[in-house]
Design goal:
With 750 residues, this protein is α/β, with parallel strands linked by helices. The model has no long low-confidence stretch (mean pLDDT 92). The longest helix has 18 residues. A hairpin with a 2-residue loop joins strand 1 and strand 2. It has 4 domains: 90 residues, Roll (Ubiquitin-like (UB roll)), CATH 3.10.20; 149 residues, 2-Layer Sandwich (Alpha-Beta Plaits); 228 residues, 3-Layer(aba) Sandwich (Rossmann fold); 95 residues, Barwin-like endoglucanases (Beta Barrel). It starts with a strand and ends with a strand. It is globular. It contains 20 helices and 33 strands. The strands form 8 sheets. The chain has a 7-stranded mixed β-sheet with strand order 14-13-24-23-22-15-16. A 7-stranded mixed β-sheet has the order 30-29-33-27-32-28-31, with no helix packed on it. Strands 2-1-5-3-4 form a 5-stranded mixed β-sheet, with helices on both faces. Helix 11 runs parallel beside helix 13. The chain binds iron/sulfur cluster (SF4) and FE2/S2 (inorganic) cluster. The site of iron/sulfur cluster has 14 residues, from helix 4.
Length: 750
Amino acid sequence: MKVFINNIEYEADSNETIIQVADRNGIKIPRFCYHKHLSVVASCRMCLVEVEGVRFAQPACSTPVREDMRINTKSEKTYDAQKSTMEFLLINHPLDCPICDQAGECELQDVSLKHGDDHSKYLEFKRVVVDKDISPLISTEMTRCIHCSRCVRFGEEVAGNKELGLINRGEFTEIRAFIEDGVSSELSGNMIDLCPVGALNNKLYSYRARTWDLKQHSVISPHDCIGSNIYYHVYSNEIVRAVPKENNEINQTWISDRDRFGYQGIYSEDRCRIPQQKIDGQLKEVEKQSILKSLNKQINENVKKYSPESFGCFISPQSTSEEMYLFQGLVRKLGINNIDHRTNEQDFAYQDSYPAMPSLGTNLNNLHEFDNIILIGANIKTEFPILTVRFNDAVKKNTNIYSYHFINMQEDFDVKKNFVMNNTDLLSVFQDHSLESCRGKKNLLIIGPNITYFYNQSLFLQAIEAFASNINATVGYLTDFCNSTSGWVLGNVPHRLPGGEKIKTSGYNTSQMLEGNLSTMVFFNLDPDNDFYNSSALINALQKSSCNIFFTSFTTPIIEKYADFIIPITTYAETDGSYINIEGKFQTFNKVIQADKFTFEGWQALNELCKLNGFDNHSIASVRKDLVSLLTNVDFSKNKKIDYKTYPKNDKSMIHKNTLRHIYSTDQIVRRAKSLNQTNQAMNRQIYISKDLVEDNPNQKTLSIKENEKVFKISDFHVKDDLPRKTIVYSSSFDNKFTESKSTFVSLKK
Ligand code: SF4
Ligand code: FES
């Protein structure tokens, strides 16, 4: 149909409102309560516009268009209506723009500039609302609130967790958290962006800078495999805040709190800033210019003295694609095939039949097209918070979500059925191919990171593939790191080259390396204290190895104790890089801030080592060119037959021990983000045990757990009624390690 706005003809759909047509055509209409991703409440009346033939100005956000409708956004009638609305809104507003963090980007300020008056007729006292401490991430200045209810609707409609509400009436109306603890949604920071005034503010950014002094840079989230697009705002070479960059295919207009506040980890006190080398048994600071030469000399000596087969090379899947490409290139040119990025895994029998790289199996925009989505070992709320928005949308469009896990975890969308069982029972569900309710439907099975940690993951993958082909389902993966995709497709695995090409003689995988006799261990961008499937196995290997080389952004106790070389490298924000998200989207970003002068850009350190060995010299542009041509030629087809090995039989008296990935322990940057680690979710780090383990003696305060030959005493456990029998689940934590292996059997020592 056609409509006329300011006498110009525009095309419109019959289900559109005036504001939608205006927005699509770049015609400005002021608004406070309207937001394109929220329901329409038409409560602020700021968007009133003149519609020909209608006596009063109409709210553009809630008025549907009709054939030949004539709208005037610039008439006197429109202007008067908007001006009166502004006058009412400003009655109680404190007008404290000079000290408001929102100043310069405040919708109220902008609109009052155009429609407001230069003096107030209101001489009475203004109302004052007492602030509440609702979160370590959000500060409030509730006297500024104009009750647009965007924050309330966001919780209810997008985050699936209604934590703020409007209470009282008239003059006494207030936005309040429903519970004393305040706001705890993993997406809470989006309310700061939605708030059109300075009522909800970013606590970390409070009074740090004026918005007009900030420089904006785009980056890709390094905290999960979704690849959310983010803008970092930089003041004086420091990131002072993060906001979403709209990308309708990925994160739409939202980001998770982990993506918004995680950058704080970059400024952690344990940043590694100076190159160090062990000389006469002591770590000594050395010149930046000389460290790579000494390192290269040592590597080449060890290759000759011991052999390339005695090297073990590990890289974090949080590294950029450029770093991954150069790391494997350098290592392979030195004749080394013992390389892996899967440091949290322990069963690799499946690896030959794995696709070129893990994939969700669908696009995020198409999730709602599935009749059933079955989550296996994944908790969306804590592991992939931004996906809560997509799952909520899918549920609204009639997708049924089922969850299979070893622990009952809350989600912020409706789960049709939650199955909680121990690993053995979980496996039998998929070995028994009879989920009749899924037959004849469009099904998606999503394998979460917890499955990849299992001591028998290959058996699971095999059972899930067979189950999927039986019910004609798509199998998708959600990986534990942002760039596990590159780990695979760029050849940071012992059995494949970049592009997935098979190697004749495969190198050793992570567990073979740790259990073997390595002469030299190389770690790139890894936190050895937290990022290995078994810390004891790692420490054993480090003790046996004669040279341990760490390219790292942070100094950890293990690094300090065992390192022979420490090369300080940049984090993702201090270098040019790229990640491939779980849909296969290759996204690049440029350096946001300048790193310390003694720190190497990760890819440059690797390139320098290549040059010292007479290998190819690269630039970021040349590496990216290689990556793009490589990715266009990859065969992504899957071999559905998955190999597995024979596993020890489950003795019924044994206890299943699993690790639960804690939302703010997922990677080395976020572990160090102080504000995130002060939230309610962060406090919720527990060791959960099933109640049968204390049945005989419910008041038992300490348990002795025997794992391999070691005995751990745990006293701070929490008895969880709905945990399957004979189960211990411990939440991964930065400073409290109760771990030999991330997934294994243990027994109780009486
Ligand atoms: S706090 Fe902000 S977003 Fe929430 S109702 Fe008030 S003005 Fe609107
Ligand atoms: S934006 Fe239309 S009434 Fe608020």
